[in-house]
Structures are given as C-alpha cells and as structure tokens.
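Worked example 2:
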Amino acid sequence: MRIFTKKLPHPDLPAEEKAQLLQNSEYQEMMVESTFMYLTLDLPTAPLYKDEKEQLIIPQVPLFSILAKFNGATEKEYKTYKENFLKRFQLTKLPPYLIFCIKRFTKNNFFVEKNPTIVNFPITNVDLREYLSEEVQATHTHTTYDLIANIVHDGKPSEGSYRIHVLHHGTGKWYELQDLQVTDILPQMITLSEAYIQVRGFGDTQGTPGT
C-alpha cells in the first residue's frame, strides 16, 4: 500500500504561525510504499444512549464504511506523544488471501475498552477494486473476496471468549468452533456476531485462492 503522511502544527499555536509552518518542507505530505500483513479497520465510537424502552442500542456499521480508510482519499488524524499527523492509505496490490483486523479494543493507562459495534458484512463478493490506485486497477484481475474464516470475541475485554466460524470448502457449509465443540451454523447468523478477525480469499468466480 501507499501511505501518505502530513505533519500538523500544534493546535494551540496562533493561526499565523501555523500558516508559516505549513510552508516548510517538514509539513508537506510525504508518501512511502509498504507491504502489509493485514488491514486494520477502525470502528466509529459506539454511542452511549438508550432507546425509549431503556434498552442499550447496539450500533452497526457497514463493512465498506470502515474499508473507506484505504480509498486513497479518506484522512485520519494520528497522535503521538509530541506530534500530530494526518494519514491516508491506498492499496496498490492485493494478495490471494486478505486478513481484516477489526479494531475493537482500545487501551489507556487504566483499562482496556471494547467497542461492541456490529459490522454488517457480506459473506461473499467483497470487491476491493475501487480501493486500488487507478494505474493498477486495469491490470488487477482478482479483486473480489469471499469469507473463509471469522473470529468472534464475546463478552468483556478482560474475561471474554472466542468463537471461530469456518467454511468447509468441499461442502460449502459453515461450522462454529469453540474449544472442542463443533456445530453447524447458518451463514446469516455469522453476520450478527462481533467479528474481530476475518480471513478472506479470492472468490470462486476468479479461481481457487492461491492459484
């Protein structure tokens, strides 16, 4: 992927000083190319309000909304101890298998918080063509991915548990694994879970993954 980074002046500086700093080369956008092992997808902040029946509302977000991080245009601010940066990302090459890591956990000095937002995702035909740079779209024949495995985290961050949904390629059936228990599961039930990590491979219409 390509990573575009732009340093930001300190927010407390006067406007004139900010404008001067933005003229310096140090504050101009820079681009580097980097390989990636997986794509980290950021969840929006979960709302804290309740509905009229005092029931906690479970927020939902479409997969493609959080994938927009990699469209080459969406900017996000990143903060370090001393400096702030704007970053945007664009994919330039897709692997046969793709791993999504949905960022559910945030850690501060005192405890770990979990975002319970449900990600609405299709099981098959997740097309990433529009996230590729224009010059490589025409040459990239494989851009559509189907779900192969889905790792779910249930419960609180400190005492939760994990379940795994796995596709049996020979039969096309989905199974849920938790410890030594293996049960059938319908594909539509998979999408209701708090997905944490997903493994996807090229769709069947594009050939067997890895070929």
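The chain has one domain: 2-202. DSSP finds four helices and 16 strands in the chain.
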